[in-house]
Amino acid sequence: MKLEQSKHISKKYKQLDDKDLVRFYRQNGDEQAFSELMNRHQTKIYSYIYSMVGGAGKADDIFQETFTKVITKMDDTYNEQGKWIAWVMRIAHNATIDYLRKQKRFVDVSSNYDEESNTDFYDRLPDEDLVSAQEQLEKEEAKSSLMTHIAELPEEQRQVVMLRHYYEMPFKEIAELTNVSINTALGRMRYALINLRKLFDKEKEQEEQNYAQRG
Known about the structure:
The chain is an all-alpha fold. Helix content is about 70%, strand content about 0%. It folds into 2 domains: about 15-105, Rna Polymerase Sigma Factor, Chain: A (Orthogonal Bundle); about 155-215, Orthogonal Bundle (Arc Repressor Mutant, subunit A).
């Protein structure tokens, strides 16, 4: 799906924040206000959906379903006290999870529990591992292979990476959106970062091997 930016939008709308744009649309049916909201956020919303379902065709359907619900529900269920984009992401997330469950591909995480120690595995990870993994991810974000590696993560890890790094959502909101505790959300992020670091290390090793063979 090729996401298109609406070009015929007055400059005044680009200077407004999301809250004002939502108010203009809800009160006056202002299509330019809604178009500006779409321009700002559609790429990230679509990227989240695509990263979860792994196919353009189904991602297109879920994206369209999401915004059909957004348009029909903005007058009824949206609370202006909250962030509009967080509300939209909740709709997109729920639509995506519904699809994955229908495909019988959605599996909840249970690997973070260690029966021997009766503690959460993530709570016992050294802080320096998380820091170094975070630094590694930030260094590699510019690479085009990032989305490829994110797609290789388990679904629950892909969720938290996309929501945290591409939407900069706080972990409290991620936990609420994905219906888990904050500790679980943090744990999934730690594990995702560690796995991403391993994937990038593997990619680098492969590149070095290929270079040596060419030499």
